[in-house]
Design a protein that fits this description.
Blueprint lengths: L7 H24 L1 H9 L1 E3 L5 E3 L1 H33 L2 H21 L5 H24 L1 H4 L5 H28 L14 H4 L1 H12 L1 H6 L11 H18 L4 H32 L3 H29 L1 H21 L3 H29 L5 H13 L4 H13 L2 H5 L1 H13 L4 H8 L5
Antiparallel strand pairs: 1-2
Helix pairs in contact: 1-2, 1-7, 1-9, 1-12, 2-3, 2-12, 3-4, 3-5, 3-11, 3-16, 3-17, 4-5, 4-9, 5-16, 7-9, 7-13, 7-15, 12-13, 12-15, 12-16, 12-17, 12-19, 13-14, 13-15, 14-15, 14-19
Length: 439
């Protein structure tokens, strides 16, 4: 790939992919479809034998789907990262995963209440593709951003992502969810007005990701070997990189810490809206409004802390974000007050963007110049290898105690462990070991 480092057009085209794909996490995973699935899709017979929504079973099944996604992404990401680097196929893989995610999201619209397995199949397919796409997308960051601007560029992406999620969520709220009469002849009794938001997400993702594929260039390799040889060489390269991880000990320390704090973050994102609905009695419209406020706060946090990242480093920014998340989690699990929960949500919003952005930029400072996709594959692995634990424990605890409040408390433990492990990361040494220029 001819260098696009510092190219403003490439930076904005790359950032626009965050604007496009955040519609999926905001509407499907967190605030609309996840909440709708747990509250309305899963039907169980009541005492009279009438099929009624079963919110507790819905929460458990949704947690299982998030768990399956995490396991599959953990297994696939390092291998696909090595394959993409070796075969010069980073952009091709990004396109393929984007298409699969869009198609899977469309499939979610077709699943009616009671068609649980169909809905879960399409969700897992779309979510795995979405998460895997991040490996190839994130790997472009060190190639388009200069070392002295990598924090703010990562922040641009996350900030634009929250703008995209916010705008798409607002359209979903105004056009599909809130009107007394559902638009386009959609049947409210079958939840079509809510399920149709998946079509909005699919179209949004497809259209706004186009500039990314038009502007970003494919990784260039001297020669692309036959498929069989490429697979063999990719696994060999992956094994070599795994052995070389000892040379990049700060990467290892960062990834180990991220296993825990990202697990807490994934769990919080996936179940925040569900918790608001099930424990504090939020209606779906209130959950959407909560999502809008959270996205505004997240946009501010990602953009502001992105500049701070370049001034003081990614590690201090990560500590600040984790402190906010710990306070927010303590408030959320202990309060009966909606007002306090709203305060907790704003703190989560301010912290989510910097946490994800600084993690991405810090690894970008640590990775060697010729193995970005591979190391971002390990980055995805660290985010998913044990990411099933949080959702799984949340489901188990919710089921065992009949309480979402007890279930969601697992995130607090994960944030504390992640922060403790992050104290062992030396940012200056990590940059030195990467061989990259510091300016």
């Amino acid at each position: 790939m001819t260098s696009q480092r510092g190219d403003k057009k490439a930076i904005w085209a790359w950032s626009l992919y965050d604007f496009a794909n955040s519609s999926f996490t905001t509407l499907v995973v967190t605030f609309i479809y996840g909440t709708y699935f747990t509250g309305y899709m899963v039907l169980s017979p009541d005492a009279a034998g009438v099929a009624v929504p079963d919110g507790e079973l819905g929460t458990v099944l949704w947690s299982r789907a998030v768990t399956i996604t995490a396991i599959l992404v953990a297994l696939l990401s390092p291998v696909l990262g090595a394959f993409a680097d070796r075969g010069g196929a980073r952009k091709s893989f990004l396109l393929a995963m984007t298409v699969i995610c869009v198609v899977g999201t469309v499939g979610l619209y077709a699943a009616e209440p009671g068609q649980v397995m169909q809905a879960l199949f399409w969700f897992v397919a779309a979510n795995v593709a979405f998460e895997t796409a991040q490996v190839f997308y994130n790997a472009y960051l060190p190639d388009i951003a200069r070392p002295d601007q990598i924090g703010r560029v990562s922040g641009y992406g996350w900030a634009l992502g929250y703008v995209g999620g916010l705008l798409c969520l607002g359209i979903a709220l105004v056009v599909f969810v809130n009107p007394e009469v559902a638009p386009f002849g959609l049947d409210k009794a079958l939840g079509e007005h809510v399920r149709a938001t998946n079509l909005l997400v699919a179209g949004w993702f497809a259209v706004f990701s186009i500039p990314t594929f038009l502007v970003l260039r494919e990784v260039q390799v001297e020669s692309r070997p036959p498929l069989g040889t490429l697979v063999k060489e990719s696994f060999g390269e992956l094994a070599e990189t795994a052995r070389e991880l000892r040379r990049y000990r700060q990467i290892v320390r960062l990834l180990v810490a991220r296993i825990f704090y990202n697990d807490g973050l994934v769990t919080l994102i996936a179940f925040g809206g569900i918790y608001a609905q099930g424990t504090l009695g939020f209606e779906i419209g209130e959950v959407l409004l909560f999502g809008i406020v959270l996205n505004v706060a997240a946009m501010i946090g990602a953009l502001g802390f992105g500049f701070l990242d370049d001034r003081i480093g990614g590690r201090p920014v990560l500590f600040m974000s984790l402190a906010l998340l710990i306070v927010a989690a303590m408030l959320a699990v202990s309060t009966e007050s909606r007002t306090v929960f709203w305060v907790s949500g704003v703190l989560v919003g301010l912290a989510i963007g910097p946490n994800q952005s600084a993690s991405r930029s810090l690894l970008g400072r640590f990775v060697p110049d010729d193995k970005e996709t591979e190391f971002y594959g390990f980055f995805a692995f660290s985010g998913k290898a044990t990411a099933f634990i949080g959702p799984f424990l949340l489901g188990v605890l919710t089921q065992a105690f009949g309480s979402q409040r007890i279930g969601i408390s697992v995130v607090l433990v994960l944030f504390v462990i992640g922060a403790a492990l992050l104290t062992r990361v030396d940012e200056a040494e990590g940059i030195a070991l990467s061989g990259r220029p510091s300016t």
